[in-house]
Design a protein that fits this description.
The complex is a heterodimer of chains A (about 180) and B (about 160). By secondary structure, chain A is mainly alpha-helical. Chain A contains eight helices and two strands. With about 160 residues, chain B is mainly alpha-helical. The radius of gyration of chain B is 33 Å and the shape is rod-shaped. Classes of the chains: A mainly alpha (about 180), B mainly alpha (about 160).
Chain lengths: ~180, ~160
């Protein structure tokens, strides 16, 4: 009887985890759609799809884990759309000409979008009761989402955007540290 | 259940310990012992499988019991279906295996022959063609239908003349 109960408990646990995983797998599909859209927009498949897959698996892992990290996935992806849009825009209109000289705007868009995303991620984390977990979850998803767009302008776009996210979270981190 | 839906695995054992007795006693009230056990187990597994989709506004017990009701219905349906299949597969009782049945069958055949013998040759041919679901080529369809009607009437009359009294 006890063995049966423990067997059933094991089955129930597996059913629960499998249910969570299924939901995470289907709930993360929009991230792949974002990657596909970017790939079709910039006519470049490899990098956006590779980073899109990484974002998909990160999202699946976080959603499967649950609690605050899972709740931070959607905001993270939404915040990451800022640098993503910047990166795509930089790819399509990558320079500004003033008089005779033209300047590349790639880094400006990527870093600017990254800073904005960083500020929002920091704000989200500082409001949570588990700020570190929320920060890592939201920052990683927004970084990967942003990287889909920034990859179009090369590695320096991704690095610039990541630096922007880190920079953006600093004020909130300092404020949080002072408060605690 | 809300915490479990949120991914808090620490409440799993507590939810399990509370749910299992409720689900098993509910199923035991509506099904036989063996079926109740099956239904309760299936319901429990489904409850945990769907736990991540549990909505906070809902009452957890009602939700879990509605899944159990569904399982009970499924098992009942399965039983009804298997009973029907068993009936379909059961061979019809063969009269020839049964001496009494065989005797009755012989008597009916003899009676039918006797009654048919009372009819004209044309009536006999018409009834035989009807039995084999054939329409003679030489006879028009409408004519054959009329002949059949008349032959059947005469067959009934002959039958009641011999056996009704």
């Amino acid at each position: 009887m006890l063995a049966e109960q423990s067997l059933l408990r094991g089955k129930a646990k597996r059913a629960y985890e499998w249910g969570r995983l299924r939901r995470a797998l289907s709930g993360s599909l929009p991230t792949l759609l974002v990657a596909l859209m970017v790939a079709s927009l910039v006519h470049e498949v490899s990098w956006p799809l590779v980073i899109g897959l990484a974002l998909y698996f990160a999202s699946v892992l976080l959603l499967w884990f649950g609690r605050n990290p899972a709740r931070s996935v959607l905001p993270g992806v939404v915040y990451g759309l800022l640098p993503l849009t910047g990166g795509v825009f930089a790819k399509l209109h990558g320079h500004v000409c003033l008089g005779l000289s033209c300047y590349s705007t790639c880094l400006l868009y990527c870093v600017g979008g990254g800073i904005l995303a960083g500020v929002l991620v920091g704000r989200l984390a500082s409001k949570s009761d588990t700020p570190l977990a929320v920060f890592f979850s939201a920052a990683s998803t927004s970084l990967l989402t942003g990287a889909i767009g920034s990859s179009c302008v090369g590695v320096h776009g991704i690095v610039g955007m990541a630096a922007g996210i880190m920079l953006g979270t600093v004020p909130q981190a300092v404020r949080w540290a002072i408060r605690h | 259940m809300n915490r479990l839906a949120d991914g808090d695995r620490s409440v799993f054992d507590e939810v399990y310990a509370r749910l299992w007795p409720i689900l098993s006693s509910f199923c035991a009230k509506t099904l036989s012992d063996a079926d109740a056990e099956d239904a309760a187990q299936q319901a429990l597994l489904k409850v945990f499988d769907r736990a991540p989709t549990f909505e906070r506004e809902r009452d957890a017990l009602t939700w879990a019991l509605s899944i159990s009701v569904w399982e009970v219905k499924t098992i009942r349906k399965r039983h009804t279906r298997s009973r029907l299949t068993a009936l379909d597969e059961q061979p019809l009782p063969s009269m020839s295996d049964d001496p009494e049945g065989l005797n009755a069958e012989r008597q009916i055949v003899e009676a039918a022959r006797q009654v048919l013998g009372q009819l004209s040759e044309q009536d006999q041919e018409t009834l035989l063609a009807t039995f084999h679901e054939e329409t003679p080529e030489a006879v028009a369809g409408a004519t054959f239908r009329k002949r059949r009607e008349r032959a059947l009437t005469r067959l009934r009359e002959a039958w009641s003349r011999i056996y009704a009294s």
